[in-house]
Design brief:
The structure holds 2 protein chains of 2 kinds.
Chain A lengths: L1 E4 L9 H10 L4 E4 L8 H8 L2 E8 L4 H11 L5 E5 L3 H8 L6 E3 L10 H10 L2 E5 L1 H5 L2 H21 L3 E4 L11 H10 L4 H22 L3 E3 L2 E2 L9
Parallel strand pairs in A: 1-2, 2-3, 3-4, 4-5, 5-6, 6-7
Antiparallel strand pairs in A: 8-9
Chain B lengths: L11 E9 L8 H24 L2 E8 L2 E9 L3 H9 L3 E2 L2 E2 L1 E8 L2 H8 L8 E7 L2 E8 L2 E6 L2 E6 L5
Antiparallel strand pairs in B: 1-3, 1-6, 2-3, 4-5, 7-8, 8-9, 9-10
The chains are: A alpha/beta, B alpha+beta.
Chain lengths: 232, 159
């Protein structure tokens, strides 16, 4: 299972500190959303035995500037995330094949509907269930976040849209172990399998993208070199 | 009042919980219990919170880490775990919590899951973000004191 974190300088824990805690909580990998984070993925993996995936989370106000960033960063990172939060951004992200994950679709003024859910399934864009506000806010804000999650969940179930789950921590203190997230998920109407699938999906995505970025990959189903059983 | 006969006493489970916060955080049993009940009340509602019970036992916290035992009614451990996960700050200080394990008696809980973490930290100076800064380190975790608050790092960041 993987978790996607915001590291220093945007968050208040460095990647290695996140990795130390995540490894002790039983995660297999860590997705680093922060573009400016400075770290040595290999040294961290060696020390803590956890897979570090470099990602970029694009935050912009309008689809035009997101589009520019997608072109800039697609080749430079393993996972490309686009932060939603307005209807225009959500729509742009789910209709772009080059985007891997649409994060926080329900934050702010953002909304989701059957058209977007279908488009996300067609274009293979994962939508994120952001557990951050459920864990860390209270009162009206949390009620809105829960309402958003419920709507998103109903759409995702109906249209079989792929999804990821994250507690979106900005410090290692806000990381929560998978069992804790599953317990929270069950309280708010998710099934344990859904949360587990959502946490594992980060790892599957990373593995797929790494395979695609390798030299032997030409297009899906076509690779250079001798055919082996696991290429099938 | 006379205590209940053994066969109708409530059955309990004890959660061994490890707590982590910033090096200068001061958390005592009372504040932790209050925040835990708030978290449970907000997530599970009053009935759910009453069902789970969630009483804090044997609380210890010093130098930014601590551990405690939380008593929960048998069969309510999942809601209790969820409520605990929603405890993210005590007195404004961010807090990390994790359930190490669950036992049927306090003694088994202590023996099996608690008391294994290293206590105390070293105060030193490190070069971080282009300046010499005071820091607290324990094992290979280092908390660097910055003007905006603590930044958590590990020894790997200074190699």
């Amino acid at each position: 299972m993987y978790e996607a974190v915001t590291a220093y300088p945007v968050g208040t824990s460095t990647v290695s500190r996140h990795a130390k805690t995540a490894a002790s909580y039983g995660y297999n990998g860590l997705v680093v959303r922060t573009r400016d984070a400075d770290y040595d993925a290999e040294a961290i993996s060696d020390r803590y035995g956890i897979d570090i995936v470099d990602a970029v989370e694009i935050t912009a106000d309008n689809p035009d500037s997101v589009s520019g960033s997608v072109g800039n960063f697609r080749a430079k990172c393993t996972l490309l995330l686009v932060r939603g939060g307005t209807n225009a951004l959500n729509r742009y992200a789910v209709e772009t094949d080059r985007v891997d994950v649409l994060t926080r679709p329900m934050a702010g003024d953002g909304n989701f509907n059957h058209v977007l859910a279908r488009a996300a399934a067609t274009h293979g864009v994962r939508v994120e269930f952001d557990f951050g506000p459920v864990l860390r806010s209270s009162g009206g804000q949390r009620v809105q976040a829960l309402r958003g999650l419920r709507k998103l969940r109903e759409l995702v179930e109906q249209y079989e849209t792929p999804y990821v789950v994250s507690a979106s921590p900005t410090t290692h203190l806000w990381l929560r172990a998978p069992r804790e997230l599953i317990a929270v998920g069950e309280q708010i109407g998710f099934s344990a399998e859904q949360i587990e699938t959502g946490l594992k999906e980060w790892g599957r995505l990373a593995a797929r993208n790494r395979k695609r970025a390798s030299d032997s990959f030409i297009e899906p189903g076509v690779t250079r070199g001798r055919n082996t059983a696991d290429d099938q | 009042m006379k205590h209940l006969p053994k066969y109708i006493r409530p059955r309990w489970r004890y959660l061994a919980v490890e707590i982590e916060s910033t090096p200068d955080a001061e958390i005592d049993r009372g504040t932790f219990q209050r925040e835990l009940w708030y978290a449970a009340g907000n997530l599970l509602g009053d009935p759910g919170s009453a069902d789970a019970d969630l009483t804090v036992y044997s609380f210890s916290f010093a130098d930014g880490i601590g551990e405690t035992i939380i008593r929960v009614r048998r069969g309510e451990t999942d809601p209790a775990r969820a409520a605990l996960a929603c405890l993210t700050a005590v007195d404004g200080e961010p807090v990390g919590v994790r359930v190490r394990g669950i036992s049927g008696t306090v003694r088994a809980c202590e023996e099996r899951y608690l008391g294994r973490r290293t206590r105390g930290f070293q105060q030193r100076h490190v070069v971080f973000a282009d300046a010499d800064r005071p820091a607290f380190s324990r094992d290979d975790a280092v908390a660097v004191s910055m003007p905006t608050g603590f930044v958590s790092a590990t020894e790997l960041d200074f190699e």
